[in-house]
Specification:
single chain, about 220 residues, alpha+beta
Length: about 220
Amino acid sequence: MATPLTPVLYSFRRCPYAMRARLALAVSAQVCELREVVLRDKPPELLQASPKATVPVLIDEGGRVIDQSLDIMLWALRHNDPGQWLRPERADLETMLALIAEFDDGFKYHLDRYKYAGRHDDADGAAAPAHRAQAAVYLDRLNAQLLSTPHLFGERAALADMALAPFVRQFAQTDTGWFAQQPWAPLQAWLSAFVNSALYGRIMQKYPKWESGTAGVSFPPDP
């Protein structure tokens, strides 16, 4: 595999893990070549780069492969962190990473079985309400944490906000009516601010499917 002149990011627009990576790359102004992947038709270059065979995958200037979304976020922010995402006002990086790990494990497990019930427990989705209820326990915790500040660890967004928001968005989009009826006003305001932000708009621009042998698109786009 040739060493890229600029970092290469294999991404898929709607994947929350890929959203994480793009958020950090955009805020850090880390220019890369974005290659938009169609997951049902993965390019051989992606399969060669990472045995996990899914997005996001970043290949840095030295040819090192980073294929975990949180690691890509940390890589980008350690290059440049103008919003101080790694330095929250009311905690430290270790506290944020612990919260993210809890959600990546427990919340994501129940989210998948709520949103994609037929792929997991049963064909008719009968277990989905139970998994929604289990996922809601995690969201109760976030809502309580947001009672005193607009973001999870203070007045401004930090790594935990941006790592978790794409997954909370995915949960909310599964049944928007149900989500809106929950007693989660702080959480709902937090999520609304995220999806209506200029940064989110930048990282959700649509790109054509990348084809082998062609150049990807320059990312991040201009503000």
